[in-house]
Design brief:
Blueprint (H helix, E strand, L loop, with lengths): L1 E5 L3 H9 L6 E6 L4 E3 L6 H9 L11 H4 L4 E4 L11 H10 L3 E4 L3 H5 L1 H9 L5 E2 L10 H8 L4 E7 L2 H13 L3 H10 L8 H4 L2 H15 L8 E3 L7 H9 L2 E10 L3 E9 L10 E8 L4 E7 L3 H14 L2
Parallel strand pairs: 1-2, 1-4, 4-5, 5-6, 8-10
Antiparallel strand pairs: 2-3, 7-9, 7-11, 9-10, 11-12
Helix pairs in contact: 1-13, 8-9
The structure holds 1,4-dihydronicotinamide adenine dinucleotide (NAI) and ligand LTNE7NMQ.
The site of the ligand N[C@@H](CC=O)C(=O)O has 11 residues, from helix 8.
């Protein structure tokens, strides 16, 4: 497949870097100010070198990415709320041109799912978004394989930044402000890390799960959300005395979405460490399915994007 990549951050750059290994050509990559495009294939190494050197990714306008001869648009621009722009318009433009879209950007899938599905129905292209939930962990494809109707709920830890912060707070007895910068250095925090600590990012992922389970109808405003900003280091110390710890746990069903800090057993499945995520999928006929792994990071998320590309027809 020929890929046009929008966004040259941790995710977009990793998709460009790994696309060749998966048998795909990159025909365009854009950042917020520039693009490089070539209908056969761009020089990815050169583009990534320019970016690493603090230069724009290319010498053309970002718009040029849409003019390239691509089969699938990879949307990896920052997640935004409400109208989910500019990610939603990028997606719309590609679908209206009968191209496929693979999203890492959670905004359009969480905030405008029903519109997205309508656009897809009118297009010869399709939309996939495995990377929006749990990075490298195959959460959505597991639900798809299981069939969404057979899944009653999904719960777990889906924000690597908050989990890393809670893990470091428990280990060092520090408050969250002191370890946020460390999390940002790992390339897992959002462009606006408030989304990670106030629970918004985890909530967007559980909203996406609820949309998949219920075939739409949810946006962030339907979720009950509490972040980790008010969890003091002392609360983690007290929890540890009792063999427990605190994790930012979310749950999605067909009826509701909830995210908040919860006490969990220190050695239990939900007490994953560092940037790891865990998802427990409750099924009607097969009990609980657990998947755990790297839920964030450039190469990790790029593997989910490229798996989605492989699933396109
Ligand atoms: N970093 C991670 O571990 C994960 C990120 N995501 C999502 O993937 C998306 C990208 O994440 P990162 O690469 O970490 O973000 P980032 O902040 O590192 O990079 C965003 C890139 O988008 C570019 N950009 C901004 N507006 C643009 C526009 N209008 N046109 C073209 N490019 C534009 C920026 O110049 C930058 O290169 C976000 O929506 C994020 O929520 C999803 C799963 C994991
Ligand atoms: N900021 C997110 C990245 C993936 O969605 C996280 O920390 O999990």
């Amino acid at each position: 497949m020929k890929l046009a990549i929008l966004g040259a951050g941790a995710v977009g750059r990793s998709v460009a870097d790994l696309a060749g290994e998966y048998g795909h050509d990159v025909v365009a990559i854009a950042d917020s100010k520039s693009a490089v495009a070539d209908d056969d294939s761009i020089d990815v190494e050169r583009a990534l070198e320019r970016k690493a050197g603090g230069e724009p990714v290319g010498s053309g306008a970002p718009e040029d990415a849409f003019e390239a001869d691509y089969d699938a648009l990879v949307e990896a621009t920052p997640t935004t709320l409400d109208d989910a722009e500019p990610g939603f318009s990028h997606t719309k433009r590609a679908l209206e041109a009968d191209r496929h879209v693979v999203l890492a950007n959670k905004g359009p899938v969480a905030e405008r799912y029903d519109e997205l599905r309508t656009l897809e129905a009118d297009s010869a292209g399709s939309v996939r978004f495995e990377a929006t939930v749990g990075g490298a962990i195959p959460v959505l494809s597991t639900i798809e394989d299981e069939t969404p109707q057979a899944v009653t709920a999904a719960r777990g830890v889906l924000n690597g930044t908050a989990n890393f912060i809670l893990t470091r707070m428990a280990a060092e007895g520090l408050d969250y402000e002191h370890v946020l910068a460390e999390a940002q250095d790992l390339g897992v925090a959002e462009a606006d890390p408030t989304f990670d600590v106030d629970g918004t990012d985890a909530a967007l992922k559980f909203v996406i799960l609820a949309n998949v389970l219920a075939d739409g109808g949810f946006s962030l405003s339907d979720a009950t959300v509490e972040g980790i900003q008010n969890v003091p280091g002392s609360a983690l110390d007290l929890a540890a005395e009792d063999g427990r710890t605190i994790r930012l746990i979310g749950e999605a069903t067909r009826e509701s979405v909830r995210v908040g800090p919860r006490l969990v057993p220190e050695n239990g499945a939900l007490a994953v460490s560092g940037t790891r995520n865990i998802v427990q999928i409750e099924t009607r006929h097969a009990g609980s399915l657990h998947s755990s792994g790297r839920g964030a990071g450039g190469p990790e998320t790029a593997t989910a994007v490229l798996s989605d590309v492989g699933r396109l027809e």
